Amino acid sequence: MLDILKAIIFGIVEGITEWLPISSTGHLIILEELLKLNQGDAFFEMFQVVIQLGAILAVVVIYFHKLNPFSPKKTQKQRMMTWQIWIKVIIGCLPAAVVGLLFDDWIDKTLYHWYVVALMLIVYGILFIIVENYQKGKTPQVTKFSQLTIPMILIIGVFQMLAMIPGTSRSGATIVGALMIGVSRSVAAEYTFFLAIPVMFGASLLKLIKFGFSFTAMQVAVLLVGMVVSFAVSIVAIKFLMSYIRKNDFKVFGYYRIVLGVIVFLFFGIQALLA
Predict the structure, then answer these.
(1) pTM
(2) CB 145 within 8 A of CB 86
(3) What is the pLDDT of residue 253?
(4) Mean per-residue pLDDT, 55-79
(5) Burial class (CB in 10 A: 0-12, 13-18, 19+), 270
(6) Per-residue model confidence as pLDDT tens digits over 33-43
(7) C-alpha span between 217 and 265 (Å, rounded)
(8) Contacts for 197 with CB less than 8 Å, ≥ 6 apart
(9) Where are the alpha helices (DSSP H) in the chain?
(10) How far is the C-alpha of 169 from the C-alpha of 184, rounded, in Å?
(11) Terminus-to-terminus CA distance in the chain, angstroms?
């Protein structure tokens, strides 16, 4: 029963941090130290990825009409525009898909360390502040999805690929990349949400295959609770972010990342010194 309560907490943290550009990994790595599931390390590694499915389903629900090319309520032109969105999403996912398939195990073994997470939190926090200061007062070149060109999509896709480094934040990296090339905050955020759908479905499937499909009843319950909570919290987080960026920039998230990165350094650094 205690693991169910822990799964609820993990679901809440995942639902918030997956969409705000503050690194879900950075938060989960600290939470893992405080609340360890009693299901083994292999299960926990898979659990962290699979609960993201709940977060992804929130995007599907919120943007279902916009992303549904078969909607009878859409005109032929609107359906074609929807297919264009999906084509741009698939192209944007290619860099991360290729690198993920080739280097997933290496990344987990080599880069999944607290000091990497802390460093990336700080680096991208600084980048957010620099980019926002640079773009201040400038009119975005891209204010609609239809204005995203293939070169722009590939650049954003490369930033999403870089987000495979723990602590970077997938949403944070893609939004920074989009802002740097003149994409408006709202289009950058939405495109980030859409990119997450195939990437996170693929990552979750990969982790499930590696773990195997042999679960105990408690493990099934923990997974389902984590996913449902993550889904519900993600609905709120996505709506909050889209409302927030209409009147505000991303600098507050940059400052937050820097503070969190310092906390991670201190938290684990002191532990290492005392060990």
Answers:
(1) 0.87
(2) no
(3) 94
(4) 93
(5) exposed
(6) 788 778 777 78
(7) 37
(8) 56, 59, 60, 89
(9) 2-17, 24-34, 41-50, 52-62, 64-67, 76-110, 114-135, 150-162, 170-180, 185-211, 217-244, 251-274
(10) 19
(11) 31
